[in-house]
Amino acid sequence: MKKKIAILAAVVLALGLASCDKQTTCRCSVLGTQNVRIIKLEKGNCEQLKTYTYHNVMDSVCMDSLLCTDYEFMIDSIFEE
């Protein structure tokens, strides 16, 4: 009985550790445009993303307002990483 409990505990621990280091892929709509940004997060959730700051070709700083989700888009089934 103790052996079964030890094996079960080891499996649960392994699954817990494997799920901790997953990246989250967020799909974000840029408000006011038809642009979509795909952003990978190490920690946190997609709903926390509200802005995206980047440098454009003219090297000026731009900021987009975002609406993000971790729900996969239909187009994701076509592309593989």
Describe the protein in words.
The chain has 81 residues and is α+β, with helices and mostly antiparallel strands. It has 1 helix and 4 strands. It has one helix spanning 2-20; strands at 24-30, 36-41, 51-55, 61-69. A 4-stranded antiparallel sheet has the order 2-1-4-3, with no helix packed on it. A hairpin with a 5-residue loop joins strand 3 (51-55) and strand 4. The longest helix has 19 residues, at 2-20. It is elongated, with a radius of gyration of 19 Å.
Layout of strands and helices, then pairs:
Elements: H1 2-20, E1 24-30, E2 36-41, E3 51-55, E4 61-69
Antiparallel strand pairs: 1-2, 1-4, 3-4
Q: Unreliable segments (pLDDT under 50, ≥5 consecutive)?
A: none
Spatial order of strands in the largest sheet: 2-1-4-3
What is the tally of beta strands?
4
If you average the pLDDT, what whole number results?
A: 76
The geometry reads as: elongated
β-strand amount: 25-35%
**Class of secondary structure makeup:** alpha+beta
Radius of gyration in whole Å, from Cα?
19 Å
Number of DSSP helical runs: 1
Order of helices and strands: HEEEE
Measured between the Cα atoms of the first and last residue, the distance is 43 Å
Summarize the structure.
With 81 residues, the chain is α+β, with helices and mostly antiparallel strands. The protein has one helix at 2-20, and strands spanning 24-30, 36-41, 51-55, 61-69.
